[in-house]
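Quick one: structure tokens for this chain, please?
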Amino acid sequence: MVQETHRLRGLRPWHIILLFALVKFLVPFTGIDPVYQLHRDEYLYLAGSLHPAMGYLEAPPLLSWMGRISLWLGGSHASVRAWGALLGALHMVLVGKMVLALGGRTYAVFLACLAFLCGASLRMHILFQPNMLDIFAWTLAGYLLIRLIQTGRPQYLYFLSLCLVFGWYGKYSIVFLIAPMALAFLLDTRLRAHFTGRHLYIAALLFLILIAPNLYWQVSHGFPVMTHMKLLNEQLLVHVSRSQFLKEQLLFNLPALLVWLAGL
């Protein structure tokens, strides 16, 4: 371990970040045998791209808009998987930047990137599914929140607002991040200071304005997202217990366990 650490010290943190980002980018193209077709869910979101709309029953519209671009580019498997490759590489860059922002150096960057290269994160960016948008939005929001706390600059409030808009149009589970983040603004003294300025309220208003088209679509169609969640609960989630779910999360993310424990 000591010998490996000395080897890493000869590299700059950004060398590690870019190396892992390159590997992450190549995985969707090299990690799947050409004999395999796209997953059935990927065909579902591509089908949605044939019918542009501000919303769909299964998911917000961003993924299908991206699928539309893939179809314009010829609709090949490579054009579809390029989105996961790109977001996976950017996600790895965000992981590295977050470590650097928290004071980590080359070895810390190496451990964090290695943890997120393996496990569930590896599969996350192979499939053309909303999850890849979701994990990117959550990671970016975490980085922006760290920078907001460290610098106090109001510009990060606007970046955070746009990030949450991206997350909203990617997957509605972003609300499970928005809720505790709002609580953090109330409890953390450094964040609570923003309530005395105008930028927090303008950023919040910007968020509401930008998600308004999708909110209107949901209201005008009788909130299909609730119908979809009800169907999932009745036909799919009923076969999954809470203990089984938690166990699977632990197994899927086992490579990151040491990083989690160190964080705790």
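The chain is about 75% helix and 0% strand.
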